[in-house]
Amino acid sequence: MKMLIAIIRENVLEEVREALIEAGITRITVSRVSGHGQQKGEEIYRGQKTIPNLLPKIKIEIALNDEFVELTCQTIIKAAKSRSGPDGEVGDGKIFILPLEQCIRIRTEERGGQAI
Fold first, then answer.
1. CATH number, position 55
2. Which domain holds residue 8?
3. What pairing do the DSSP bridges indicate for beta strands 55-64 and 29-35?
4. Based on the structure, what is the number of domains in the chain?
5. How far, in Å, CA of 8 to CA of 79, rounded?
6. Which residues contact 59 (CB under 8 A, 6 or more apart)?
7. What is the pLDDT along the chain (116 residues), one digit of tens a residue?
């Protein structure tokens, strides 16, 4: 089992969500977060360029059985990558894949892959 965490731009959330549903991935958690990496957000304030410390992003968390990890990654990449060129743009996001030790469905007390 794996925990997939994707950080994406706010404006592509619906496109990513619809692509995941189409791929059969329907159980996701979405949070609004702030952060920065290489992307530099610029704003004009009183005629001067300012660089804010944190930019609004979307964090998607998905618990997956191992066989769905690659499908989910490719689906997110395809939906979230900027269309401006073959390499996308700085700020398109990141995907993190972590081992998931245990999953327990509270209602039935099922454990492991069946609980996902």
1. 3.30.70.120
2. 2-115
3. antiparallel
4. 1
5. 10
6. 5, 6, 7, 30, 31, 32, 33
7. 999 999 999 999 999 999 999 999 999 999 999 887 776 656 666 676 666 678 899 999 999 999 999 999 999 999 999 888 788 888 899 999 999 999 999 999 999 999 99
